[in-house]
UniProtKB/TrEMBL annotation:
GO molecular function: transferase activity
InterPro entries: Glyco_trans_2-like (IPR001173), Glycosyltransferase_2 (IPR050256), Nucleotide-diphossugar_trans (IPR029044)
Coiled-coil intervals, chain numbering: none
Domain Glycosyltransferase 2-like: 7-168
Top-level taxon in the UniProt lineage: Bacteria
UniProt source species: Paenibacillus sacheonensis
Protein name per the record: Glycosyltransferase
Record-linked SUPFAM superfamilies: Nucleotide-diphospho-sugar transferases
Keywords (A to Z) from UniProt: Transferase
Length: 263
């Protein structure tokens, strides 16, 4: 039986971008894997849904009104679980992130090394990002690093991978955004995070929804609430699964070695 990767795109009025993102999503990532695309339409008033279907999206969930990026990502995570995903991959619909690099971003999850991955622009290459956006990204990433007491390169990335367990456990406590609270939630629960270098280029069409005052007014209180919430640590479960993953990898290597000798 094949395993499943579900790539989900939260989208709001991205009719000029979303088709290009979906077209770049690799559909073949291994003989034992199948890939499906889920679009979460956050109340778009343009042709986002039509362009997504035209480009090949198998699944579309539409909100009646714009609820916010956090709500859209929450629905995307739940949708991955409903569709039976073994791995979920979130990518922004603005065509800034490299969909063709999805296999690299999920590789640590496939190998059993991590539960949660982020495509890191600051470990990779960045083209076209304005200075004020760089400063904002660095500041919010630094805040997450201080709160979690670990190194983080790009805490604002719009390209992230999730194991099945992370999909089921992730919580996003506010509708406006997800970037900071999702990482804080999963890492505090004991899930293993890894950052993967990616190639990033600023969008050509449309503009970001982020407005400084509104962003600060929603995100900072949400970070405060998330850090005050009790979370169950799943590190013991994680250790068992890591051990099982290592054992499976070793058995697979032995099988391949025996096959090579027969040849």
């Amino acid at each position: 039986m094949k395993r499943k990767l579900v790539v989900f795109l939260p989208a709001y009025n991205e009719e000029r971008n979303i088709g290009g993102v979906i077209a770049r999503i690799p559909r073949e990532i291994g003989m034992d894997w199948e890939v499906e695309v889920l679009v979460v339409d956050d109340g778009s008033t343009d042709g986002t849904v039509e362009e997504a279907r035209k480009a090949g999206a198998e699944h579309v969930v539409s909100f009646e009104r714009n609820r916010g990026l956090g709500a859209a990502v929450r629905e995307g995570l739940a949708g991955c679980v409903r569709l039976g995903a073994d791995i979920g991959l979130m990518i922004d619909a603005d065509n800034e992130y490299p969909a063709e690099e999805i296999p690299e971003v999920i590789a640590p999850i496939r190998s059993g090394r991590a539960d949660y991955t982020m495509g890191s622009r600051f470990k990779g290459t960045i083209q076209g990002m304005k200075l004020h956006r760089r400063i904002g990204n660095v500041c919010f990433t630094l805040l997450q690093a201080l709160l979690l007491r670990r190194m983080i390169w790009d805490g604002q990335s719009g390209m992230r991978g999730f194991s099945r367990e992370a999909l089921e456990s992730a919580e996003i406590i506010h509708d406006y955004n997800y970037a900071q609270v999702l990482t804080l939630n999963l890492v505090r629960k004991g899930f293993v995070m890894e950052e993967v270098p990616i190639t990033y280029q600023v969008r050509v069409y449309g503009q970001s929804f982020i407005k400084f005052r509104k962003y600060m007014g929603h995100v900072l209180p949400a970070i405060w609430r998330e850090m005050r919430r009790p979370v169950g640590n799943q590190s013991r479960v994680r250790k068992r699964k890591l051990a099982a993953g290592v054992q499976l990898a070793a058995e697979g290597a032995q099988v391949r070695g025996r096959a090579a000798k027969r040849e």
